[in-house]
Design brief:
By secondary structure, the chain is α/β, with parallel strands linked by helices. The protein folds into two domains: 147 residues, Aspartate Aminotransferase, domain 1 (Alpha-Beta Complex); 222 residues, Type I PLP-dependent aspartate aminotransferase-like (Major domain) (Aspartate Aminotransferase, domain 2, 3-Layer(aba) Sandwich), CATH 3.40.640.10. Helices cover 39% and strands 12% of the residues. The protein has a seven-stranded mixed sheet with strand order 2-8-7-6-5-3-4, with helices on both faces. It has a three-stranded antiparallel sheet with strand order 9-12-11. The longest helix has 21 residues. The chain is globular and about 60 Å long. 48% of the residues are buried. InterPro entries: Aminotransferase_I/II_large (IPR004839), AspAT/PAT-like (IPR050596), NHTrfase_class1_PyrdxlP-BS (IPR004838), PyrdxlP-dep_Trfase (IPR015424), PyrdxlP-dep_Trfase_major (IPR015421), PyrdxlP-dep_Trfase_small (IPR015422). Belongs to the class-I pyridoxal-phosphate-dependent aminotransferase family. Keywords: Aminotransferase, Pyridoxal phosphate, Transferase.
């Protein structure tokens, strides 16, 4: 077995950890390959296929030979489609020079952080958070500042919490609504409370992650910070993508709109890393944003049914409390009532990581433990899978919890 010197790898790697969601999916895949009956509820992607018109646009691009390098951060046609979308859906006006396109939403956020962070800069991140936010900040040389927003506030950060977290070193607030992992969404009124705080601190910029914008339920209405408070327009980077709503996770297209100098800096980072996103995917994304949107309501109706099913079944499990989310396709149940108990196999549930590991090993249900998202004792379930899988998985969770002693 080959080895490398202890000091060969970058010290920066010691600041970050691999994605726990990917780790859970990999472990579940290994157990499944070994013959275990595993139901994976860890992956954050829709189980729907990409709509046919979008696939056709990708095929047409290939047939037409649109398979060469493009402009570093996106073709003009896609940038124009993004500008039209932001005006249509969010009442935000941008021109192409204020838009950047990257290989997925993750690269958009990473480019922005790499282009702006200096040692000592702080980034406020409401917890629970998407697992990658803090590690991207660390990779960029900054300091993540987690603000715990627990079940008592509906997993939403309050204006008072935001005010208390801001220091002279704060550079960004990363804001995600509806949220991964909780599905919690901020109403326009709740957002206004946060933007009022930000207006008092002109050195703090806002990086929104609006990836779940179209995945909302009941009477919840999506809003984004620069829309709610136009005075923040000049220091907001509005980030989004086609991955979730359009079932295009593998196509890898994310985008952002913001101040032109910031977009130019992000373009410079991308020019020396990946260069342009996949040309075929870009043309498919043009069709996604410009084409028919009626399938969104159809998919949402399916997600709503699944949400209600999972919330009801998990709330029937002993020791579990599962709030009802506003959007996305996740629930974030609390397991406080399970702590200190022992599984039939003899494992004592000391925290949510132990709970998730025992659940996988003893029942074959794969979930992601709450500590990975910065708030315990919880776990995340993705209900972007079939009703049959969800009913079986939730039944196993109920049985598992009932057997704790």
């Amino acid at each position: 077995m080959s080895s490398i010197p202890d000091d060969f790898l970058s010290k920066t790697l010691a600041r970050v950890k691999p994605s726990p969601t990917i780790a859970v999916s990999n472990l579940a895949a290994e157990l499944k390959a070994a013959g275990k009956d595993v139901i994976g509820l860890g992956a954050g992607e829709p189980d729907f296929d990409t709509p046919q018109n979008i696939k056709n646009a990708g095929i047409a691009a290939i047939t037409a030979g649109k398979t060469k390098y493009t402009a570093v951060d996106g073709i003009a046609e896609l940038k124009s489609a993004i500008c039209a979308k932001l005006k249509r859906d969010n009442n935000l006006s941008y021109v192409n020079a204020q838009v950047t396109v990257a290989t997925g939403g993750k690269q958009i956020l990473y480019n922005a952080l790499m282009a702006t962070m200096n040692p000592g800069d702080e980034v406020i991140i409401p917890a629970p958070y998407w697992v990658s936010y803090p590690d991207m900040v660390l990779l960029a040389g900054g300091t993540p500042v987690a603000v715990e927003a627990g079940i008592e506030t509906g997993f939403k950060m309050t204006p008072a919490q935001l005010e208390a977290a801001i220091t002279p070193k704060t550079k960004w607030l990363i804001f995600n609504s509806p949220s991964n992992p909780t599905g919690a969404g901020y109403s326009a009124e709740e957002l206004k409370g946060l933007t009022d705080v930000l207006l008092r601190h002109p050195h703090v910029w806002v990086m929104t992650d609006d990836m779940y914008e179209h995945l909302v339920f009941d009477d919840f209405k999506f809003a984004t910070p620069a829309e709610v408070e136009p005075k923040l327009y000049a220091r907001t980077l509005t980030c989004n993508g086609v991955s979730k709503a359009y079932a295009m996770t593998g196509w890898r297209i994310g985008y952002a709109a913001g101040p032109q100098p910031l977009i130019a800096a992000m373009r410079k980072i991308q020019s020396q890393s990946t260069s342009n996103p996949c040309s075929v995917s870009q043309w498919a994304a043009v069709e996604a944003l410009n084409g028919p949107q009626d399938f969104l309501a159809v998919n949402n109706a399916t997600f709503l049914r699944r949400r209600n099913l999972v919330v009801e079944m998990l709330n029937s499990a002993e020791g579990i409390t599962c709030p009802t989310p506003d959007g996305a396709f996740y629930v974030y149940p609390n397991i406080a009532g399970c702590l200190g108990k022992t599984t039939p196999a003899g494992t004592k549930i000391t925290d949510d990581q132990v709970f998730a590991t025992a659940l996988l090993e003893e029942t074959g249900v794969a979930v992601v433990f709450g500590a990975a998202f910065g708030l315990s004792p919880n776990f995340r379930v993705s209900y972007a899978t079939s009703d049959t899988n969800l009913i079986e998985a939730c039944t196993r969770i109920q049985t598992f919890c009932a057997a704790l002693s």
